[in-house]
Every structure is written in structure tokens, then in C-alpha cells.
Write a structure and sequence with these properties.
The structure holds 2 protein chains of 2 kinds. Chain A is built from 10 helices and 26 strands. Chain A is α+β, with helices and mostly antiparallel strands. The relative contact order of chain A is 0.08. Chain B has 2 domains: about 120 residues, Response regulator (Rossmann fold, 3-Layer(aba) Sandwich); about 100 residues, Winged helix-like DNA-binding domain superfamily/Winged helix DNA-binding domain (Arc Repressor Mutant, subunit A), CATH 1.10.10. In chain B, helix 4 links the parallel strand 4 and strand 5. The mean pLDDT of chain B is about 85. Chain B has a 5-stranded parallel sheet with strand order 2-1-3-4-5, sandwiched between helices. In chain B, strands 6-7-8-9 form a 4-stranded antiparallel sheet, covered by helices on one side. The chains are: A alpha+beta, B alpha/beta. Chains A and B meet through helix 5, helix 6, helix 7 and helix 8 of A and helix 1 and helix 8 of B.
Chain lengths: ~650, ~230
Amino acid sequence: MKLGTRLLVFSSVFLVLLPWFGYHFMGKIEHSLLQGQEEAQSMSASAIAIVLNGYTGLFETDEHALYVYPFKQSIDIDGYDEDWQQLKEQFTSYADNSFSLLLANNELVDDKQYLYVYLRVNDKDIVYRNPRYSPLDSSDHIRMEYLDADNRRKRIVLLTAAQGSVSVYEVKEDWTSWKDGKHVNAVYGVWRETKEGYDVEIRLPGIWLEPNRRLSISVVDVFNENERNVDTIVSTHLIDKNTLNPLLFQSQEISSVLKNLSESDSRICVVDKFRRVRAVIGGQALQASLCHAIDKVSETLVDKVLQGNAQVKRFEEKDETIIVAARPVFDGDEVIGAVLVSKNSRQILARQRDTLNDVVLATLGIFFLVFASLLFFSSWLAFRINRLKKQTSSLIDESGRFISHVELSECDRGDEIGELSRSFSSLLGKLNSYTRFLESVPRMLRHEILNPVNTISMSLQNLQKQQGDSADIKTASNAIKQLQLIVSSLTEAANIDEALIQDEVDRIDIAALLSEYVKNSQLKHARAKLCYQGAKKGFFVQGNDVRIVQLLDKLKDNALDFSFPGTDIYFQLDTGQHNQVVISVKNEGEYIPQEQLDILFQGMISHRSVKTATPHLGIGLYVAYQIARFHHGQLKIANRGDKQGVVVSLILSSYAPL
Amino acid sequence: MKQTVAIVEDDAEQRRYYADALRSNDYVVQEYEDRQQAIDAFEKELPELAILDIALGSDVGGGYEVCRYLKQRDASLPIIFLTSRGDELDKIYGLQLGAWDYQTKPVSLDYLTVRIESFFQIKQLASDANGNGRKSGDLNINMKSMQCFWKGDEVNLTPTEFSILAAMSEADEAVSIDELVKATHQGVVEDNTINTHVLHIRKKFKKIDADFQCIKTRYGFGYQWLCE
């Protein structure tokens, strides 16, 4: 991975943590906001509870009171319970569920025109009215008893001969005979059979019940179609027949007290100790039906409050959180009711969401900025490092020699790269002096060796004059020549680069040169057979003929040294790819491992298992390589595929006249 | 009259050998170890020929300085460099300074005395340039005075170049590098040194005659003088 990329990845990882922290922080803020709201709601619930402590009379209700649920929509009397769906859970059942009951009035109508009753009766064996039987209690029927405005008890019976509208009669105290012999038209009811028995939906004028608000309802089951005797009477006034059940409406007084305390976005709900809702104020903003009638959620909460414990709860509903704070209302030590203050946290959460959005946007912005500046910074660093790399490598050629000594551009910088550059510079300087020293070694060596060699040589010349040719003198002379050879080949290799630069290049017919070269070389080397394969003329390259001959000499010497005695040496001229000329020199000889072949062009490396008469320093191929390079050519060495031996190839570009 | 030859060489042994060889050939030899010593002596009297080593002890280019000094005093004074520095650049620089010959060590003492002798003969025979010459077509070679003329103009060759040219022009066919090496009378000579000499010879002829094509390279063997 590149330096810049790595820096980016690292910093990105840390940058990503920023929004994560922001998110967590937002969570904490949300938590504390909600807590604050909880506290505020608790306080207002406490305040309301304290206010209501003074209205203890409002909570003095009978356990057996019939609760009249306020209804917001109109109710069609059709015997079906669709209109009552929202109160489905609120049915009060009597005598082991032999019937259950719901009462409601329409809140929307100010004068509370009607009282609605929905009765659900369990009766597998319905006995309808038969006109042959005159007593009114000779079929299954409903009895209703209430106190009129003059405190007189009024009794009505509802019965029917079939499903549909019921007949309503006012009856005497015995419940069997009509009072006026007339239908009571003000009461309207519809009877409908169900799986379990039958449902009766009834509407009666609300005014009848004022101001005493007392009403009892009984379901009378008649046994046997033929005998038609009353079997059971299940009534709402379970304990005392003479006491009618009080009707319990939501309290106008509590509502008016609370109206002043309510807020637009919160709902206040007051319940009595029997969990019946006495008043509900506000809550337009609330979607949930919390405490509208006592629902399951409110029920458990209220249960705890009614034991005297203040409660605060959060309810997650759909997308919103509702906080409910509940406080008991005391009368002395006794809990007589509870106050529930519910508030939707939507506003808080919306505000929090806005903030979160801001945080995310800001983080993204910062992220982008940091990212961009990091990108810029890292590219800049990479650029500088790259430039340093280029400069450094441009100072040294492939073989590690100094081309020039230039001050690196980063040297004047104060940062780490500047420091790196300076240390590179000083390192290169040291390397340069060392290379120069090494380069001067062959020359120095030649100078130092040739002086004593000269002395010895002259001594030998004098000896020869005085004593004539002797074997010893010849041996010594030969040794001197060998020493000279070593020194001169060392200097040749050391100076080849400089010497090449001064050479002039020309257009050469390499085919003619090579064919003549091989022919002439054969004259010098009678023992070996040199063969040429290729065109005799017509292949042109750009170069220096003397140098190419020097190169060929090296390749030839190499091939001669390595070939088995009596084998042929082939010089071959081919055209290669991309308009190239390939000169190959092949010999049969030892196999040389590839790893040794690869390094043969480096100076002072020689792979020789045969001892030869002339000293070998492994310089020949190095010189050949340098000459090939000077001609922008390539020199390659490989083992032969066909026979054991080596092939050295020189690849040159063809001369293309402009 | 005996000729005076000055030798400036920091190595006492080598100096002694040169001096002995020259003295045995009846030259008056003056020996100097370093630049200062030599120049001090030359202030009083100039020799007739000077043999200089380039590096004089720690005085790396001392021989060049002595050469420059002598050439200032007398431009015609013959100077032979005998040195271990065989680089082409050193050689060219030395010859540019006006040296008559440049020989790399080890030196053949016989050849050295022959050279010196031939120089003094050149001086003597300078007036009689064509007297002892060998003529082949446009080329006129005087072996004794080591002078060479091409189409009547003198080609200014160093003694080594002259020897190579003489060897080439004498033969009817191509001359191998090895034979040319022998002709230079130098101990060990790389093939490339001969190539360089031939290159210089060609250049010098081309200066006089731009169409000069008489020396033909025989690749892998040597050179051939083609002209009559």
C-alpha cells in the first residue's frame, strides 16, 4: 500500500469514530431530555393530585355503579357491535358471564340525549315471545328499572317474537303485566341472535334518568318452550334488589378543575379507585388512546398507582414515545383515585433528530474537509518522496555509478523528508567518494605495479644482454607479460565507460563485418573451427566498428575458452523482432547453471573449471556488456537448447536512416 | 659531440637503468628526481632531449609541468614521455603538450636508445628529407628520419604511429594486429591500443587528404595498406 493511501485509511478509521461519538452523545442527550420531561410530567401530575385531594367528594362512587363511556361518534341501533369496537374490552360481565354489558352516551351531543346500552347474553336456548302466552315474563326478556325525576321507580321490559326490533312495555311491580297497555316508543332496541345467544342494542332517552342517574338492568331467561317458566334472573344490582345501580358519567367538575391545568400537548386523565375514568382533558396531539377508556396499558399502570406508588413510564407506540407520569390521589391515607399525565415525546425527538441531522451534516462536512486536506497532504508527501526517489535514482546509473552530483531539492526543508533528503545527500556524497576511490584503484594499481614491473623488465633486459637467453630469463619475462596483461585488462574494464563516450558512431554493414571477422579470425585460431551462418552483407547498424570487433573478440575468446576441443564455434546473424539484428555466438561446452549465467556480465566473475594459459579475471564479458550497452543493444547469455553449451546473443537495433 | 639527454624520473632504480643504457650509447645523461630539481637545472642549461615520467612522487602531473616549461623555453626540444599511465587521455594530453613520443612502461631499453638515436638522426637529416626515403605511390617514408609524406605533405606521426604505418605499408597483404604490436616495440599492447593508433593515423592523413581511404580494416585480423 502506498504511503498516502495508508495515511488516508488510518485517518478515515479514526474519522469514522467522530459521527459514532456524536450519535452516542445524541443518545445521551435524548435520554436526559426524556428524563427531564418525565420529571416535569411527574411534577404536574403531583400538582393535579394535590389539587384533587380537596375534591374528595368527586371520587365517592359505588363499586357497582354502571360506567357510562363517553362516545365520540354516533351509534346506529342495529344489534351489531361495530360501533362499539373501541370499547370491546370494556364489557362488564355478570353472573359468570351469563351476560355482559356496555353503556355509553354520546359526548358530542351536549344534552346527552340518549343512553345507549349494549347487552351480550349467553343463552343457548332462546325462547321468543308467543302471543298465545299473555304474561310478559313468558319469554326471554330484558328488564330495566330506573328512578324518574320524581323519585319513582319505573320498570320497562324489552322482549321480542323474533330477531329485529324489540317491543318495549312499561310494567307493574310484578314485571308480568303492562302498566298502560301501550308500547313505550321512546325506547328503541334491536335483538340479534349470535353464536352464544343474543345481543340487544338499546337506546333510551337520557332525560328519564336525570337527575338521580340510577338504573338497573336484568336479563331474564325463560326455560322450556312449552312450560315457559322463568328460570334465572341475572341483574346488575347483585346485592340489594331495592338499590338501583348508580350511573357513573365522566365528571364535569373534575374536568373543569383540570381544564385550567391542562396543556395543549399533554393529556390529563383522572381515574377512580375502581380504575374508571372520571375525566380526560386535552390530548389533541395524542394519537394513542391511552386512558381514553381504561385500556390494558393504563390498567397495569393504574393498578400500581392505586396501591399508592407514583409511577413514570415510557411507552413506545409506533414511531413515538409516550411518557406517562401517574400520581395517586389521597383522601387522608386512602387512595381514592389516580392522575395520569401523558405526553408525547415527538417534539423532543423531532428536535433531537434535527440536531442529529446537523451533527451528521457537520461531521460529513468536516470529514470531507479533513479527507480532502489529508488527500492533498498525502499526495504532496508522496510527490515529494517520489521526486526524491527520482532524483536519487537519476544520480546513479544501472551499475551503481555516479552520473552527477546534484544537490537534492528537498535538502533545504526543515521536516523529516528534508532530513531524509539531507542524509541521502550525505550518503550519496560518501558513496560518490567511495566509488571514485574504487574507480581510481585500477589506475593507481597499474601505476604502482607497472613501475616495479618496468624495473624488473629492464633488469631482465640487462641480464639478457650479459648472459644471453636463458630459460629463467624467459620464464621471468613471461611472468612479467602476464602481470601486464592483468593490469591492462583491469584498466580496460575500469576505463571502458569513459573511453566509449569518446567513440564516434557510424553506419556499419554488420553482416559484412561479421562474415569478414569470422573468416579472418579463423586464420588466427587454426585449432578451432569458426563458422559463420548468415548474410554476407546488407544488415546495417549504428555503431563503432572497432568497438564491435572488440566486443566480438570478447565473445570469441569466451567461446574458445569454454568449448570442448575439436568442436565448432558458430557465429550466426539473424533478424529479430522489432527491426532488430541478432548476432549469436554458440559453442559446445560445459553446462553453466542459470544463476551463474545471470551474473556473468558483472565484472570479476568467471565460471571456469578449465585452467587456461592466460589469466582470466572475468572482465571480458563485462567489457562486452558495456560495449553492447553503448550501442543501445542487449547482451544475453543462455545454455543451448540443442546441444550442451552456451549461446551468447547480441541484439542491436537496425539502422534506420531518417 | 656528445648529446645531452635529461631524465626526470622519481624512481631511482628505473632512472639508473635508463641512464646506464643511454650512457653506454655515448650520451651525456643528466638525472633529476623531481620537478624542482629538473627546472632548477634547466634554468642554467637546456638538454638536447628530455625523457619525462608524468607522476613524480606525490607530484601527480609533475612531468606535464616540466614538459610545459621546456616547451616554453624551446618549442623544438624533443620530449619523450615514459610513463605507467597508458590511458588514451593521458597520451593525447601529453602529445598535445608537444611531446615527440609517448611510451608506456615497461620500456624496451634497446628500443628507447634506437628512438633517441633516430631522433638525432632526424635532426641531422632534416635538410635531406627525401634522401633516404621509400616511395610507394603517394606515400613517401623515410625510415631513418622517421618522416612520412603523403602527396608531398608531411604527416606528423609519433614514432609509434610511424612504426605501425611503416609495418603496414611494407607488407603486400593485410598485417595482423599481433605483428603491428611487435612493430611498436612495446611490451604488452592491447588490440585496442593498435586500433586507436590506426585511428589517429587515419585522422592525420585525412587532415591533408579528405578522401584518404588507403588503410582498410580487416575485421578480426588487422589492417591492410591498399594504395600503391
